[in-house]
Amino acid sequence: MNKKYYIIDFDSTFTQVEALDELARISLQHHPEREQIYKKIEDLTNLAMEGKLSFRESLAGRVKLLEANRDHLKQLVKHLKKLVSPSFARNKKFFQQHAEEILIVSGGFKEFITPVVTPFHISKENIYANTFVFDKAGKIVGYDEANPLSYEGGKVKLLKELQLQGEIHGIGDGYSDFQLKEFGMIKKFYAFTENISRKSVVEKADHVTPSLDEFLYLNNLPAAISYPKNRIQCVVTESVPETIVKQLKKEGYALKQVNKLDTGNIAKASILVTGGKEKITETLLAAAKKLKLIAYLGNASKHVPVELCTAHGVIIFDDIQKPSAVLKRITGFINNGDSFKSLNFPNIQLPEVSDVHRCIHIHRNVPGVLANINQVFADHKINIVSQYLMTNTQIGYVMADIHADYDKQLLKALKGIDETISFRVLY
Q: 188: how many CB neighbours lie within 10 A of its CB?
């Protein structure tokens, strides 16, 4: 089987920020002209990332302006460890299982990259970056100018020297990452936009990945969540406060804001956030074939056909107003299957678990369904680690945590059980 390698950028990809920009804010915090210098450094960063200035010129200019030392670097590392991109932070399993195939390739510097990425099981031998030059007092006075990564096209030159034998994929936010594809060094280039989206880079990418979750999903790699949030459409009506809209955007959902609901704009929605006496009619509900959740900022029982939602497997959370509470209910259900404080589902709240798959089965509440679910697991030789069942007068809500890897036949069998309303897999 052809071996695969994953070339990952550091600044604005592995972390949410450009490290040299952050180092400047630390080293120059007491400088009288710090704001002007910050601006110069940020401009040099962006010009290089957009391919409008050679990387060599950008790097030399930024290092010259830093006035940083080893103590500043220690502060920077502590800062960067708190700013690992969220989708990277939650996917340590991927890094652990593919440690030998993952390479961090960056125009940044090993002095701050190495201590940030090694806790993710990435070996020092697989970290390729520049190195600083210090004077006797520990002040940064330059960098190793012989390092290929200090030059324009340095990533291309490095990969030519490495001569990796296999299929190579690249993930990054900048022009230097795209150059790997441009010069034929990698099979696919994924523009990473979780932190910043550069038009000149996005336009040239094989695929735009708003998070690492999306990349892992596309490549069938181990992931913390089973389905990327950027693929989950969340429709929000105009009655929803902007604070809630911002929270949902930050969480990574594909957000669609509408003035008024109609059968067209609700058709692909998985999540609906509304209120202000907005009425959800039976016609709208029938059109919303993918709908899983309604978050209603008010009394939903007066404006939503509750029993019909339950029959369709659509959970309802109502009388929630605080942005944090709205996000907690939505995220708890999407990520973990929690139905706690819902209007129409049996209330279940479970801890997150690791190293298992969580299967969620919603069915009409009739005798024998749980036995049929367990029979399917037994037929596929799947061991159940833990299982939970709650019912109300209409539906049964089953969660089963299983250890073994599963195949599509198992999913097909679970979906095919009589009285099934919906089924999905988490983790």
A: 17
